[in-house]
Amino acid sequence: MKRICILTLTSLLLVACATSPTGRRQLMLVSEQQAISASKVAYAQTLKPLTEEGKVDNDPALKKRVTAITERLVAQAVKMRPATAKWDWSIKVIDEPDVVNAWCMAGGKMAIYTGLIEKLHATDDEIAQVMGHEIAHALANHQAEQMSVALATSVGVAAVGVASDRPGLTVPAAAAAAALAISLPNSRTAETEADRIGIELAAKAGYDPRAAVTLWEKMAKLGGRNPPQFLSTHPSPANRLQTLKQLVPQMLPYYENKAPRPVFKL
User: Fold this and answer.
1) Domain limits of the chain?
2) What pTM, to 2 d.p., does this model score?
């Protein structure tokens, strides 16, 4: 039985490949549509207890500020990848002062925690860099890739058939895999892709690309013995700041050609 499972997994790995926006080969045991469907369930499950505790969207001014930023980013994401106009884009602000985190699930379901904004004293430009980076993960289909990696680590799970439209991946299992995907560390390659796409999205949306550098400088200061959750899922290679600094001159023309955006005061 073990040999059959291994052979089945090997066959799946040979055929379940896709190409990222940068041309990188990706393992795709889970289709993007499966990832989107599973994310809807995982999103609802994640928000339910937080909503019951009154921790979701309870600051109208902050919600308005974050929504204005993400709407501009989403507009650019749709221009970059028109098919995502059909996604059910939404953003929730979660009132967790000690949690420095943000994410975007497959299909455009997003969240940002107040701890990230407060502890970093994040400007609009820096929030745009965070959410641009998260949206980039979704555009590049990184969650389906993460789900595929998580499932492939178990031969038994992979062998029952997790390829697109196969019945073996049940809704509970898929939702669990989707929730797990946003808590797993991204690969360095995926992070580089998200950095590149995210800084461009933000610049085209009218947000200063230099904020990508200041954002990660602030993140570095929050490190140490107890790094924030964002750093555990978004590992920061030593050359990240240098790479972002090199991207800034390329992105500035996008930013400088944009009309001034409204400024929200809390």
Assistant:
1) 27-256
2) 0.80
